[in-house]
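Continuing the batch. This is chain 6 of the set; chains 1 through 5 are on the previous pages. Same settings as before, nothing changed between runs. Recording input and output for traceability.
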Amino acid sequence: MTPASEPVADPTRAAVRVVRFELSPSTMLTVGLVALSLWLLVRLMPVLLVLVAALMLVGMLNPLVAGLERRRFRRGLAIGLVFGISIGLTALGLFLTLPTLIAQLHSLIDHEPEIRNRLVGYLDGSTLTRPLADWLSNMQYGEVLRNSPARLLTVSLRAIEIVAYGVAAVFLALYIMIDRDRLRGALFAVVPRRHHIRFSRVLLNLETIVGGYIRGQVITCVLIAVFMLAVLLVCHVPNALALAVFGGVMDVLPYIGALLTIVPAVLAAYVVGPGPAALVFVLLLLYEEFESRVLVPVVYGRALRLPSSVVFFSLLAGGVLAGVVGALLALPIAAAVLMLLEELRVDLPGETEQAADRAVRREDEREEREYEKRTVAASTEDASAIAVEISRERKESEDAAEAKDRQTENTK
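Output for chain 6:
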């Protein structure tokens, strides 16, 4: 007989484990604050974009103001001259081009059926492009543009909103430059003093990156617009000014901008004839190659030093995350991230410290000791100015040494 003192456990019955998740009040508060921050970020996105645009304007115009200050102009007068001349040139350009541009855009819309029929006839001649010709012939975007008052009203309101945001960004940039010392002092007040030198270097490099990027974009866009206008006028292409302005605007997008620039110009030139269309295509293609290989490195200089793979990935990520605005901001953001990794002395995996890195660290320590001596009894506003001065002197010496090295390499 078996003893009956202990019951036999059923081996087919699995033990039940109860897992309980308990959130502490601090964790729940943190999650709530993160959710609230994300909601505010989404709601305030237009305000943040205005702030970013204003900071980019400051980065573009501040070197001009600093140049006038070095020539003994008072800062207020220098700011007034730079902003006045910039606004005057912009208004003059709009006054000279906007009426003609609007007239030519109307003409393009009116001639859209003719341009499309010519292109459909050309594509229909080959079996490979015949599906594209059928798709193009069935498109009704011309009628949508002509017969959709609600859509036109929406576009007009959006354009007015963009103009209002642009004006707000200009005034915000003006206020930031006028109150530079107080704003800089308030910004440095929230940063521990032992990090002021490094923080000032980051700000100077951000100004170089943003200012160089914006100035480079303006120069390259104006140059390609002028070149396109000259080519289209020589080839007697109608609505040359509208196409040139469109090409200049699209040039802000690397890689994609070239396609968006060449295709409309070639299609418009095809109305004149296949010969002018081929000439426009070849000349614009050669200019795009010249711009990417010669003009862009000269114009941007040290502002953007990004490998092609980083440029392509940044544009792709920026476009996917934030559309056209993301693509426009992708390159300066990528350059800023690489600069931060360099300035914060982040040791990446696989890297070993070299002699040059040790020399840079010793120079950082020397600057920090000098800063501590000069700011023993200084206010935050004065200390921030001293930090910027020390960092600017080092940056100028590094730029001079780099220019000397390039000159030495060129003479070899």
